[in-house]
Amino acid sequence: QTILVTGANGFVASHVVRTLLAAGYNVRAAVRSTSSTERMKEIHAPYVSQLSFIIVPDMTAPGAFDEAVKRVSGIMHMASPFVLAPENNEVDLLQPAIQITLGVLASAAAAGSTVRHVVLTSSFASILDMGQGYRPGYTYNEADWNPMTYAEAAVADGPMAYCASKKLAEEAAWNFVKEKKPAFELSTICPPWIFGPTLGSLASLEHLNESTEAIYKLINAKSIPPIDFAGFADVRDVAAAHLRAYEKPEAAGKRFLVGNHFDYQTAADAIRAKLPELKDRVPEGTPGAGLKGDVYQVDGSEAAKVLGVEYTKLEDTMKDTVEGLLEAEKRL
Ligand code: NDP
């Protein structure tokens, strides 16, 4: 079976591609430019015979995926702008996120399509109501939706606009399925911050993806940063969740919050415990004060139950994330 992965060169997508290849699937990687393909071949060298590429320079163009979806049985749709400081909310975030998602689904739904299941990489951003702030005592799960509208998001700050881009794209996908009743099933994966190792080592410390950047900022910070998203998932768990959502019939038509509690104090405690050589570099804050319950909680139990996700402990994820950053510091 061949699975199409859009945005296959990204941080999270690399792990999804690897998980699919290791499970024996063929992967058709849709990327924007040929510059991504050589690096991907290196990263996935042991499986290169199962990997093929399709270059889609403008993923927002009508029919952009018509060629890419041919003869694939599944799609992992991951290409989406992830920037927290956009210049223009609509142009940089909202329009591409929505248009690319609808374009992928339209191509997959076209007559004669072989696609039977689409897994959309959404986000906890699509669940979280940022307007409620820390919301102590509240627990978010799959039933919650970020209430932001397109009009509000167009003029919101960068992080809120990013969150809205994920919500509006996911909502558009569910509406598409409801209205067009295509032959394929849809599942969505909604992780908060995704941390963990970068496959194939980091190419640069200047252009880290947003979540790896958040941890690099933490280890270089003077004090513990305030909570932005109070949840995380290990990138390898997120990749496993995508594969299982595709394979398990029970996952059809469902969205999954994949994640556990996160705050920077607890992360700093974990890094200092696992990597003692960083104890004078990572801010100390008030060790142990992170889990005080003064922020909402995230409930990732449905993904554990239906998808069999076994959550990696924060301290292990932090160790692997930070070791990759330290290795890159030495090498680059
Ligand atoms: P990366 O920045 O590493 O990868 C993003 C991918 O999307 C790249 O392939 C990129 O292509 C592509 N992309 C970005 N903008 C566009 C665009 N306008 N048109 C077409 N392709 C585009 O991000 P992550 O791996 O961190 O994120 C991957 C997915 O996971 C995204 O959908 C993101 O929203 C979601 N997610 C990420 C989380 C995290 O903490 N990292 C948390 C929750 C969800 P190119 O390389 O050519 O720019």
Mean pLDDT: 97
CATH homologous superfamily heading: NAD(P)-binding Rossmann-like Domain
Low-confidence parts, pLDDT < 50 over ≥5 residues? Answer: none
* CATH class descriptor: Alpha Beta
Per DSSP, the total helix count is: 10
Quick one: overall form?
globular
CATH architecture: 3-Layer(aba) Sandwich
Order of strands across the main sheet: 3-2-1-4-5-7-10
**Count of folded domains:** 1
Helix content: 25-40%
Strand content: 5-15%
Structure description:
With 332 residues, the protein is α/β, with parallel strands linked by helices. It has a single domain, classed as NAD(P)-binding Rossmann-like Domain (Rossmann fold), CATH 3.40.50. Helices cover 39% and strands 14% of the residues. The protein contains 10 helices and 12 strands. It has a 7-stranded parallel sheet, sandwiched between helices. Strands 8-9-11 form a 3-stranded mixed sheet. The N and C termini lie far apart (39 Å). The model has no long low-confidence stretch (mean pLDDT 97). The structure holds NADPH dihydro-nicotinamide-adenine-dinucleotide phosphate.
In brief:
This protein is α/β, with parallel strands linked by helices.
Q: How do the helices and strands line up, and which of them pair or pack?
A:
Blueprint: E1 2-6, H1 11-22, E2 26-31, H2 35-43, E3 51-55, E4 74-77, H3 89-109, E5 117-121, E6 139-140, H4 150-154, H5 158-180, E7 185-190, E8 193-195, H6 210-219, E9 231-234, H7 235-247, E10 255-257, E11 260-261, H8 264-274, E12 297-298, H9 301-307, H10 314-331
Parallel strand pairs: 1-2, 1-4, 2-3, 4-5, 5-7, 6-12, 7-10, 8-9
Antiparallel strand pairs: 9-11
Helix pairs in contact: 1-7, 3-5, 6-10, 8-10
Bound molecules: NADPH dihydro-nicotinamide-adenine-dinucleotide phosphate.
